[in-house]
């Protein structure tokens, strides 16, 4: 049986995977989708999942931008 932390992480990962590659920047669409995906979870807990997923999405986008800006080093 998975632990509570593992369930939480799995749910957050599921939300991140669903919104990866989209231009979603607000909490509302992620929160609505998390309510649909996890109907048996309290609304406060669902909001926490959505906030965590949004933080991860923003960090991933920031890292991707930083990686894209980095000039490629040529080997001589």
Automatic annotation (TrEMBL):
Designated name of the protein: Uncharacterized protein
Organism: marine sediment metagenome
